[in-house]
From TrEMBL, chain B:
The lineage of its organism: Bacteria, Pseudomonadati, Pseudomonadota, Alphaproteobacteria, Hyphomicrobiales. This is Nitrogen fixation protein NifU. May be involved in the formation or repair of [Fe-S] clusters present in iron-sulfur proteins. Residues 5-125 form the NIF system FeS cluster assembly NifU N-terminal domain. Residues 134-182 form the BFD-like [2Fe-2S]-binding domain. Its cofactor is [2Fe-2S] cluster; Fe cation. Binds 1 Fe cation per subunit. It comes from Methyloceanibacter methanicus.
Length: 353, 342
């Protein structure tokens, strides 16, 4: 009963036609993996898939693996410097050989929103299954799946204040689904294994709260972010990523020329301000962010990305505090940096902002 | 960072000797913006005593990178050029009271910048390292990697990444790094500078599946014509590397006597070149049907190829392969056999 209630709560948040279209699992990565592999298994004669260049590593790593080990041809659709998807390239890649298209609804590093509703309609014209990784979008922007052509949607609980380790996959009714975890008959035989009942109940409630507060939150966060961005734009050689694009109301990503994000984050942390870097540098890889690279952010700023994620608990006073200390931190690090002001003219000219 | 020693934190929050020197006696630098860390160092030297009287740095990078550069200036001020040139990566690490494993490259960067400054002071042409470049993502060459492995006695690929960032990006150089590390470690064991039990051994590469009937008879002669005939539509399941399809279709191309003679003379790498050129010419036709084919390796007179895209799991894959084989024989005049691998 509790699980049924949670299913209806998630159904309501997603605007799904039926509660049975919601399948609970362990989170975003499991959702993405089972969705894409199932779509490929369901259409064995179609040996191609399409993804965007800015997908989360859950999709990227899987796509690379499928290309390498299963001979799947993967089309990666580029984006422009504002993070807008190249629709012409997408149209060219679409054909009756494509089994599945997977495009994220909103990007995790920059907050940019992709026109997935339209992209899904285009995918339907060639009979491809359309999956969207909506981990960042669910609960932040209105979603009404029953009025779209989207076949599958992945979401993760902790992004809407449910605990970690719970997620869900939306499967349009009538869609062929090949279970990836084989075993018992839980979740209508689509996902075997004992259900994480406490997680499911929490996710349901979190979905309900997110739905109730979404409109208020969006207005509040947009205003808060506007205040932050107005201040950030005053900082020399700083640029807000995808400023002109549709973005989630809570995310802003800013790149600073000539300095490195980790040192900025450390000095912010010293002031009691938690932000994150755009790149995965701190998480085991030395490569700069693939998202910023795909958006053609130049070398001078590629390593200097800082992302602020706001929630309803943040206040205007906190924003003002950030704007009070950040310019000094940036100036201090530029003082130390061998690039930029005072350095050779060439690096000045190549500056991004 | 906040788990680092107090000394690291102090040097990051209050870096010493930041800036440039007016009329420095020598300058050195290491790293670039693309590398993710860069350091410029300038020194003033007393010409008579050879003592470094002042040093300044500018650094682009993470907190530890800035701290290591700051510490380096403190270490070298007051030392002679000769003493400074003996400063190792390990000394910088010790001076800071240790560094996190994955930040070792910061000390290496300081050491490299100092070495270029000293070379500059001595008027040495810092001979560019022209050895083979191994990693696509980060600019590190073989000779440099070998030196880092030796001086720091590295014995795992993860350590090599932590000291140089190499293989910390796309990972496509993972295998060459493993092989280099194993080779250098083996040398070090032989020289008696490394305990044999600690030396790294590269994982054994899985040998490609090749059933006995496709093994060569040892002296490079063509295999006996007893290949399985599956060109009549039997499927080759995806994921099952199955040698197949000795061409059984009528009117097949025959290797020419000239081709045979030429083939016998070719070195292995020349065979690969000829075959891969022929395959590249075929690929556009396969791509037009949504498929693709790439050469994996050539052994004796067998070309191992990998099919992808629409070819995978296609009922006609075996026919495609016979076609590829026929075209290869036509193009090269050589008695080639085409075997699909995964």
């Amino acid at each position: 009963m509790a699980v049924q209630k949670a299913r209806r709560q998630v159904q309501a948040l997603l605007g799904a036609d039926q509660a049975s279209e919601i399948m609970f699992n362990s989170g975003g990565t499991e959702s993405v993996n089972s969705a894409i592999i199932s779509a490929l298994e369901s259409a064995p004669l179609r040996r191609e898939m399409i993804v965007s260049a800015i997908e989360h590593s859950a999709v990227r790593t899987l796509a690379d693996w499928l290309a390498k080990n299963k001979g799947i041809r993967v089309h990666t659709i580029p984006v422009d410097r504002n993070g807008r998807i190249d629709v012409v390239a997408y149209k060219e890649a679409l054909s009756e050989r494509v089994a599945v298209v997977s495009m994220m609804w909103a990007n995790n590093e920059t907050g940019t929103i992709l026109p997935v509703v339209e992209l899904a309609e285009m995918a339907k014209e060639v009979g491809a299954t359309f999956h969207t990784d909506a981990v960042q979008a669910v609960g932040k922007i209105p979603i009404d799946l029953k009025s779209t052509q989207i076949d599958m949607l992945s979401l993760s609980g902790h992004k809407l204040h449910a605990p970690k380790g719970i997620g869900a996959l939306y499967l349009r009714k009538g869609l062929r689904f090949r279970p990836q975890i084989k075993g018992g008959h839980q979740e209508r035989g689509r996902r075997a294994g004992t259900e994480n009942v406490p997680g499911i109940v929490a996710l349901g409630r979190a979905a309900e709260l997110a739905g109730e507060r979404m409109a208020d939150d969006a207005a509040y966060l947009t205003a808060l972010r506007g205040r932050l961005e107005a201040g950030l734009r005053e900082i020399p050689n700083a640029s807000i990523v995808a400023f002109e694009n549709d973005r989630l109301p809570n995310t802003t990503s800013v790149v600073f020329d000539y300095i490195e994000s980790e040192s900025i984050l450390l000095l912010l942390d010293k002031e009691g301000i938690a932000a994150s870097s755009g790149s995965a540098c701190s998480s085991g890889s030395f490569e700069p962010s693939h998202v910023l690279q795909a958006m053609n952010v130049p070398e001078t700023a590629l390593r200097g990305a800082v992302r602020f994620s706001l929630s309803r608990q943040n206040t205007e006073a906190e924003i003002d505090r950030v704007l009070e200390v950040l310019p000094g931190i940036v100036a201090k690090l530029r003082e130390i940096s061998p690039f930029g002001e005072g350095a050779d003219a060439a690096s000045q000219e190549n500056a991004y902002a | 960072m906040w788990q680092c020693s107090d000394k690291v934190q102090d040097h990051f929050l209050n870096p010493r000797n930041v800036g440039a020197l007016e009329q420095p006696d020598a300058e050195g630098q290491a790293g670039t913006i693309a590398y993710g860390d860069a350091l410029k160092i300038a020194i003033k030297v007393n010409r008579d005593s050879g003592v470094i009287t002042d040093a300044r740095f500018k650094s682009f990078g993470c907190g530890v990178s800035i701290a290591a550069a700051s510490a380096l200036t403190e270490i070298i001020i007051g030392r002679t050029i000769d003493e400074a040139s003996a400063v190792s990566d390990a000394e910088i690490v010790d001076y800071l009271g240790g560094l996190p494993e994955d930040k070792m490259y910061c000390a290496v960067l300081g050491h490299e910048a100092l070495q270029t400054a000293i070379a500059h002071y001595r008027g040495e042409n810092d001979a560019a390292d022209s050895s083979e470049r191994i990693c696509k993502c980060f600019p590190a060459r073989k000779a440099f990697l070998e030196r880092i492995i030796r001086t720091n006695k590295l014995t795992s690929p993860g350590q090599v990444t932590n000291y140089t960032k190499v293989s910390g990006g796309c990972q496509s150089c993972k295998r060459p790094i493993e092989e280099l590390l194993a080779a250098v470690n083996a040398d070090m064991v032989e020289e008696g500078v490394l305990d044999a039990a600690k030396a790294y051994h590269a994982p054994v590469k899985a040998t490609p599946f090749m059933p006995a009937k496709f093994q060569m008879n040892g002296n490079g002669a063509p295999p006996r014509p007893n290949g399985v005939t599956e060109a009549n539509g039997k499927s080759i399941g995806p994921g099952v590397p199955r040698p197949n399809a000795a061409p059984s279709v009528g009117g097949e191309a025959q290797p020419t006597p000239q081709g045979l003679a030429a083939f016998a003379k070719l070195k292995p790498e020349e065979r690969i070149e000829v075959v891969s050129k022929a395959i590249d010419e075929l690929r556009p036709y396969l791509k037009a049907d949504g498929g693709d084919c790439e050469l994996v390796e050539v052994k004796e007179n067998t070309a191992f190829v990998k099919l992808s895209g629409a070819c995978m799991g296609c009922q006609m894959a075996s026919v495609t392969l016979s076609g590829v084989q026929q075209r290869l024989i036509e193009k090269t005049g050589m008695p080639l056999r085409v075997v699909p691998v995964q």
